[in-house]
UniProtKB/TrEMBL annotation:
This is Transcriptional regulator, LacI family. Keywords: DNA-binding, Transcription, Transcription regulation. CDD domains: HTH_LacI, PBP1_LacI_sugar_binding-like. Pfam families: LacI (PF00356), Peripla_BP_3 (PF13377). InterPro entries: HTH_LacI, LacI/GalR-like_sensor, Lambda_DNA-bd_dom_sf, Peripla_BP_I. SUPFAM superfamilies: lambda repressor-like DNA-binding domains, Periplasmic binding protein-like I. GO terms for molecular function: DNA-binding transcription factor activity; transcription cis-regulatory region binding. Residues 4-58 form the HTH lacI-type domain.
Length: 348
């Protein structure tokens, strides 16, 4: 079947091609009745605009770049669902690229997206991204940029994430309320903004409950790839359980760390929660089906992605004109399961 054109619509509705074109672009020059007629006919007959021709004529690509750390976890996938829904509704395609937690790869992704003429960029910075000069330089060229998930005070832009401090505070407070006192923290490196906020929430909960600080219970991973992260988790857990006074509970501060801690503890022969309680940030849909089921800090991943995309689209269209950038921190919730049940019950 031949592709329908503007000329075909114009002929069918006895209108000029120019009128049809303006109606589909929602031009103020065309009345609402005519716009409705044209839109209804175009939709009923599956009219698809020529994106390439439109891009050449208007100097717009109709695409948005998305840079993520890695696509292979459920939390990121849900954020991408939210981004895709908002972008599709607004008529934008998305181009997804992965930094693999590498700053060099992140810079390469941004250069490629800029070269492809994207109209804006959504980015969740890599674990190696401590300084944001490359993003500032890109933003200074006029490129709209929105940070999502991994937000930072070091970069001025619209940002959408969660309250990392409160999420970590609540998780640690939950373990304390369930009778655990020696609580270890497994986190990413100290220079990563969201990781430092989660460390602060953990430390604040200890202080709030008059539990002495123990530096030997805080372990930091420096990921540069899946195998390296796996090895790092196992090394840190072996060190923790080998302490003279080992932890009774473990708080894992990221999605990947949470599931890998569960795996490592089981491989080392530890019963959870009888010998080590566990809670972590995670959005895995398998949390209920793991053995034991995993207590988690749930992050509204879909909403993070959707809202970040909407912020960027408004910025591209000129609707976000405030000189003050907004940072949105969505609330988290605790999903409590078997892995962190009260100490008295765990001992049974």
């Amino acid at each position: 079947m031949a592709t329908m054109t503007l000329r075909d619509i114009a002929k069918a509705l006895d209108l000029s091609v120019s009128t049809v074109s303006k109606a589909l672009r929602d031009s103020y020059e065309i009345g609402e009745t005519t716009k409705s007629r044209v839109a209804a006919y175009a939709q009923a007959n599956h009219y698809l605009p020529n994106r390439m021709a439109k891009s050449l004529k208007e100097g717009k690509s109709g695409s948005i770049g998305v840079v993520i750390c890695s696509i292979d976890n459920s939390f990121v996938s849900r954020m991408l669902d939210g981004i895709d829904g908002a972008c599709t509704a607004a008529g934008y395609d998305i181009i997804i690229m992965q930094s693999k937690e590498s700053l060099a790869q992140e810079k390469s992704c941004l250069k490629q997206l800029e070269a492809r003429g994207v109209e804006g960029i959504l980015i969740s910075p890599s674990a190696e991204t401590v300084h944001f000069g490359h993003l500032t330089a890109l933003k200074d060229t006029g490129m709209p940029i929105v940070l999502f998930d991994r937000i930072s005070e070091q970069f001025e832009s619209y940002q959408v994430g969660i309250d990392n401090y409160q999420g970590a505070f609540q998780a640690t407070q939950h373990l304390i309320a369930n009778g655990y006192r020696r609580i270890a923290l497994l986190n990413l490196g100290p220079d990563i903004h969201f990781a430092s906020e989660r460390s602060a929430g953990y430390l604040s909960a200890l202080k709030h409950n008059h539990i002495p600080y123990r530096g030997d219970l805080i372990r930091l991973c420096h990921p540069s790839g899946r195998e390296t992260l796996n090895d790092s988790v196992r090394t840190h857990i072996r060190a923790l359980v080998g302490l003279a006074e080992p932890p009774e509970a473990l708080f894992a501060a990221t999605d990947q760390l949470s599931t890998q801690c569960l795996s490592a503890l089981r491989q080392l022969g530890f019963r959870i929660p009888q010998e080590m309680a566990l809670i972590g940030f995670s959005n895995t849909e398998l949390a209920d089906m793991l053995t034991p089921s995993l207590s988690t800090v749930y992050q509204p991943a879909f909403e993070i992605g959707r809202l970040a995309a909407e912020k960027l689209i408004k910025q591209i269209s000129g609707k976000n004109v405030s000189p003050d950038y907004e940072t949105v921190k969505l609330p988290v919730r605790l999903d409590l399961r078997e892995s962190s049940r009260p100490k008295a019950q765990a001992a049974v």
